[in-house]
């Protein structure tokens, strides 16, 4: 904790709606975006609350990342494979990775899932 505290001494931590934060970014900034998953095709993790992030929020996220891209901001978005993200996926570079899920209460229920990585960065490995 002390090492993390030392690293954050010159940082600004802010609690706000994601769109406000994304819209404050400038050319040269980098965003890693890992929102709660909204999908009609599978059961999702809702421990944050089932209404915390909706399809409207997902659309706002896409629009805010488009604006950030227009300003020269680089981003990487990780998301579950879902129809709700296909239109955004086709605008940018995307690839699938495997991710280990360790949130299950029982070791036997933990699994590997496929996630989609979407980026406007040419440096991302795909």
Give your account of this protein's structure.
- The chain is α+β, with helices and mostly antiparallel strands and 126 residues long.
- It has a single domain (16-119), classed as Vaccinia Virus protein VP39 (Rossmann fold).
- It has helices at 2-7, 18-23, 55-70, 86-89; strands at residues 30-33, 74-80, 93-101, 111-119.
- The protein has a four-stranded mixed beta sheet, covered by helices on one side.
- 11% of the residues are buried.
- Largest beta-sheet details: 4 strands, mixed
* Low-pLDDT stretches: none
Counted up, domains total 1
- CA-atom Rg in angstroms: 16 Å
- Helix and strand content put the structural class at alpha+beta
Spatial strand order of the main sheet: 1-2-4-3
Question: Which features would summarize this protein structure in a list?
Answer:
alpha+beta, 126 residues, four-stranded mixed beta sheet, Rossmann fold
């Amino acid at each position: 904790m002390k090492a993390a505290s030392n690293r954050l001494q010159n940082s600004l931590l802010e609690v706000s709606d994601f769109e406000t934060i994304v819209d404050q970014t400038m050319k040269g900034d980098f965003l890693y975006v890992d929102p709660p998953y909204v999908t009609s095709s599978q059961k999702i993790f809702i421990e944050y609350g089932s209404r915390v992030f909706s399809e409207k929020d997902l659309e706002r996220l896409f629009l805010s990342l488009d604006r950030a891209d227009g300003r020269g901001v680089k981003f990487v978005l990780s998301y579950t494979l879902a129809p709700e993200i296909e239109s955004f996926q086709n605008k940018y570079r995307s690839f699938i990775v495997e991710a280990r899920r360790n949130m299950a209460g029982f070791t036997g229920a933990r699994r590997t899932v496929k996630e989609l990585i979407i980026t406007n960065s040419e440096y991302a490995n795909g």
